[in-house]
TrEMBL record:
Protein species of origin: Fervidobacterium pennivorans (strain DSM 9078 / Ven5)
This protein's name: PDZ domain-containing protein
Transmembrane segments: 7-26
Keywords, comma-separated and alphabetical: Membrane, Transmembrane, Transmembrane helix
Length: 472
């Protein structure tokens, strides 16, 4: 009897050991599959440097490439293999010195990553919780400290992983980075385990004017969307919508691309809205925060408000190389051979009347975050309609990089974005787009807009439009 019990216990223990051993081997295999060989890391970085030297739209591209190489040597790895997040930590700080938001790596997100159980939006150095997966931290709270580290310290630590001409542009990229702090900042070494190990964080927030410290646990990136769906989040902007503010029709846009079914949805939205509101006399196009790269979005809307074909002369610069052949052809240049010359090319933004035509007074509202094709449209619009723009100066320059392309590296699980052209208007190099009527906002007013408490800029814009209508 004792022998039988002993054999049973041995059998059970052996089974447990074998099960855990196999599970650990499987996890070890998965871990090994995730690792990126050093030669792939070098290849990804070399591709970025080659892109600068051959296609980056600047006369100083050789000097820019040299600065990137110098910075890379500060972070160059000495390991033969590394995880995708470590690839990002090695390469992005080097690309950051280009100071171009359109030239960078996106942080990789793998399902197994440990993330903080909330996301934030950073406004003027203040981090506002935008969504949360825990009860003790709610959307709208202000994040003050993480494990005793002030948010300002953490932001400075994360800035090398961002790209842009100035801090205000870079802080827009901090949301995902702050949630990735357990991987980006606090991870000392790789661990292989059968079960996910949660880590505790002391989080200090200001909620309803009261400061408090709560203890939260990390969760996986895969589980965060499911867990956070149980709690309210700050409102997100729709791709496009229309509403009326009294006698003023407002088209409000978010950032989106005209791909897949959204192209037909957008056209139907514009056409149906205009048919149903064909008696509008005043229209406000709200492009605050819009970073869409497709000029067609704004062109097709505006064409419903023009009664004759109209063209505006624009200028762009592109490096004359075979790598840019398709972009050169797009702007009317027949490529013959590579000269590596930075060509300055004239092109036109042309608007043709589109049905239904609406005879309305069109205004445009934009803020400092408006960029890319939205900025290009407003610059063109200002040449056609004088005294019809409201908002604040943009952070992005008028002569900004454009024609952005993407390369996804399957091994490093990251996307590399880079521009092939730069707007080259005959203006001061660092000039930004300024509105005809400027509205100044405090940090608190910006935060209230993010929280959907009050839209000060829109209210002031509507007042300006109505005052102008009375004077006419």
């Amino acid at each position: 009897m004792k022998t039988g019990i002993r054999l049973f216990v041995i059998f059970m223990i052996s089974g447990i050991v074998v099960t855990f051993s196999l599970s650990w081997i499987i996890e070890f295999y998965k871990y090994q599959k995730r690792l990126v060989p050093l030669d792939r890391v070098e290849r990804l970085f070399d591709s970025a440097v080659r892109t600068i030297k051959e296609t980056y739209p600047s006369e100083d591209r050789e000097e820019i490439a040299r600065r990137v190489l110098d910075e890379y040597h500060k972070y160059k790895p000495n390991r033969k293999k590394m995880l995708p997040i470590d690839v990002f930590k090695v390469i992005q700080p080097a690309l950051s010195v280009v100071n171009d938001q359109n030239f960078r790596l996106y942080p990789p997100i793998e399902p197994v990553y440990s993330v903080l159980p909330f996301t934030v939006i950073v406004v003027d150095g203040r981090a506002i919780v935008s969504s949360s997966a825990v009860e003790d931290i709610k959307a709208g709270d202000e994040l003050l400290e993480i494990n005793g580290r002030k948010i300002s310290e953490l932001i400075n630590q994360l800035l090398p992983y961002t790209s842009g001409e100035n801090y205000s542009i870079r802080e827009q990229q901090l949301s995902s980075l702050i949630q990735l702090i357990p991987e980006l900042v606090d991870k000392n070494k790789d661990k292989i385990g059968i079960f996910y190990r949660q880590r505790e964080y002391n989080i200090k927030v200001k909620s309803d004017g009261v400061e408090k410290t709560v203890v939260v646990k990390t969760m996986t990136a895969m589980s965060y969307p499911r867990e956070s769906a149980q709690f309210p989040a700050l409102p997100t902007r729709r791709p496009f919508e229309f509403y009326k503010e009294g006698d003023i029709g407002v088209f409000k846009f978010g950032t989106f691309t005209l791909s897949g079914t959204i192209y037909n949805s957008y056209r139907d939205f514009v056409t149906n809205t205009l048919v149903q509101n064909n008696d509008m006399k005043v229209v406000l196009v709200d492009l605050r925060g819009v970073a869409s790269r497709d000029f067609t979005i704004f062109k097709e809307l505006f064409e419903h408000f023009v009664d004759k074909k109209t063209s505006v002369e624009r200028w762009i610069s592109i490096v004359n190389t075979a790598y840019n052949m398709s972009v050169l052809n797009k702007y009317g240049v027949d490529f013959e051979k590579t000269t590596n010359e930075l060509l300055r090319i004239k092109f036109f933004h042309t608007f043709e009347p589109r049905e239904p035509f609406i005879k309305a007074d069109v205004w445009v509202l934009f803020d400092r975050y408006t960029s890319n094709a939205a900025l290009d449209f407003i610059y063109t619009f200002k040449k056609l309609r004088e005294d019809r723009t409201i908002g604040e100066p943009t952070l992005m320059k008028i002569n900004h990089t454009t024609e952005v392309d993407y390369k996804f590296d399957d091994s490093a699980k990251t996307s590399f974005i880079f521009p092939s052209a730069v707007i080259n208007e005959p203006i001061q190099h660092d000039a930004v787009l300024k509105p005809d009527y400027e509205i100044e906002l405090t940090t608190e007013e910006r935060i209230n807009y993010v929280k959907s408490i009050e839209d000060v800029m829109l209210n002031k814009a509507l007042e300006i439009i109505r005052e102008r209508a009375v004077k006419r």
